[in-house]
UniProtKB/TrEMBL annotation:
Keywords assigned: Pyridoxal phosphate, Transferase
Purpose: Catalyzes the removal of elemental sulfur and selenium atoms from L-cysteine, L-cystine, L-selenocysteine, and L-selenocystine to produce L-alanine.
Organism: Jannaschia rubra
PROSITE patterns: AA_TRANSFER_CLASS_5
PANTHER family membership: CYSTEINE DESULFURASE, CYSTEINE DESULFURASE 1, CHLOROPLASTIC
The encoding gene: csd
Catalytic reaction list: (sulfur carrier)-H + L-cysteine = (sulfur carrier)-SH + L-alanine
Protein name: Cysteine desulfurase
GO BP terms in the entry: cysteine metabolic process
Superkingdom to which the source organism belongs: Bacteria
Family label: Belongs to the class-V pyridoxal-phosphate-dependent aminotransferase family. Csd subfamily.
Cofactor annotation: pyridoxal 5'-phosphate
Domain Aminotransferase class V: 24-394
Length: 406
């Protein structure tokens, strides 16, 4: 049975105070806190088992390599991938998307070819495609949301032309919390012969993900949002797409033989993992994924659905608070502004005085902000350890903001 207090007890940082108040951490969309088992795993990996991987036959290298490579299978199970050979380790979603841009997209795109994006994309799923626009004359085709922040899968499919080479789409908006029906997009795109890359950064932490069921060609996640370390991440790559990819970076591990006049690449996925990787970061990510699966993704989703519904009811009950978007299906992510002169940074500062951590700014989603006619919002994003009482604490602090700036 899910017990949020038992969950909270596993996160040491939640015991600390900020400005004399208990920490209410609502910035999970940016980066989640780490349970003790992840911290212990990192400490052991550095303090007792550390050595370089794939490099030696000695005991520590063998232990480190085994622990590192075990994460590939864990991530495959976590994402519903048919084989661990379809998982490439990265430093996070940003590197993962750049990997696809350079290794898969760049070699097969000509001037005038098109990439379809939604207006909700994070900059990490925009800038790598701008590289292709600038360097190779690729066109970026944008699909807007409706007034409530919903993204119609059919609108994405209707944007496909005979020049479309890729759809790059978020699974969950980091600003509006909109849950996108990526399965319908992938199904329709596959019928038209168009690959789909899904940014799963904000989705995999909140819900069970099954890439085989979704039918995507690429699915990227980042470890630090999965209650794991920063500098860790992974991407599922369909084997048909993987066979089409050239190496992203050159160095150790991604080669079989190097001679003066020739080179032979290693097999995938090693082919796309050059040099000494983030060994401990990846092992820590594996511990986080184990922890999430032990808690149960359905239990996590149910708990966060309760938080979402309660927070939506309380926040929309404040008639001077503007919650951005009202999508039919949303994660527990809320962006908001206040009536009056208070800037998002002002709101965040006042909330911080009460120990409440939220995000303020454009959330690396400037095209969406421009689409909504905003320069900045505050964002409260919930996670597995948040409580209904913390929703109340947020509302109480927002009422103080309103009184200060009215």
């Amino acid at each position: 049975m899910f017990d949020v207090e038992e969950i909270r007890a596993q996160f040491p940082i939640l015991q600390r105070k900020i400005n004399g108040n208990p920490l209410v951490y609502l910035d999970n969309g940016a980066s989640a806190q780490k349970p003790q088992v992840v911290l212990d795993t990192i400490q052991r990996a550095y303090g007792q088992d550390y050595a370089n991987v794939h490099r030696g036959l000695h005991t520590l290298s063998t232990i480190s390599t085994d622990n590192f490579e075990a994460v590939r299978g864990k991530m495959a199970r976590f994402l519903g991938a048919p084989s661990e050979d379809h998982i490439v380790f990265t430093t996070g979603t940003t590197e993962a998307i750049n990997l696809i841009s350079y290794a898969w997209a760049a070699p097969r795109m000509q001037p005038g070819d098109e990439i379809v994006l939604s207006i909700m994309e994070h900059h990490a799923n925009i800038v790598p495609w701008h590289f292709l626009r600038e360097r190779q004359g690729v066109k970026l085709i944008w699909v807007d949301t409706d007034a409530d922040g919903n993204l119609d899968p059919q609108a994405v499919l209707d944007a496909i032309t005979d020049r479309t080479k890729l759809i790059a789409i978020t699974h969950v908006s980091n600003v509006l919390g909109t849950v996108v029906d990526v399965k319908s997009i992938c199904t329709g795109a596959r019928d038209r012969g168009v690959p789909v890359m899904v940014d799963g950064s904000q989705a995999a932490v909140h819900m069970a993900v099954d890439v085989s069921d979704i039918g995507c060609d690429f699915y990227a996640v980042t470890g630090h949002k999965l209650y794991g370390p920063s500098g860790s991440g992974a991407i599922f790559i369909h084997p048909d797409r993987m066979a089409e990819m050239r190496p992203f970076m050159g160095g150790g591990d991604m080669i079989r033989d190097v001679h003066r006049d020739s080179i032979t690449w290693n097999d995938a996925p090693m082919k796309f993992e050059a040099g000494t990787p983030g060994i401990v970061q990846t092992i820590g990510m594996g511990a986080a994924v184990d922890w999430m699966m032990d808690v149960g993704m359905d239990a996590i989703a149910a708990h966060e659905a309760g938080l979402r519904d309660y927070a939506l009811d309380r926040l929309t009950g404040l008639n001077w608070l503007n919650v951005q978007g009202n999508p039919r299906d949303r994660a527990a992510i809320f962006s908001f502004t206040l009536d009056g002169p208070a800037h998002a940074h002002d709101i965040s500062t006042v909330l911080d005085k009460k120990g409440i951590a939220v995000r303020a700014g454009q959330h690396c989603a400037q095209p969406l902000m421009e689409h909504m006619g905003l320069t900045a919002t505050c964002r409260a994003s919930f996670g597995v350890y948040n409580t209904l009482a913390e929703v109340d604490a947020l509302v109480n602090a927002l009422e103080l903001c309103h009184d200060l700036f009215a």
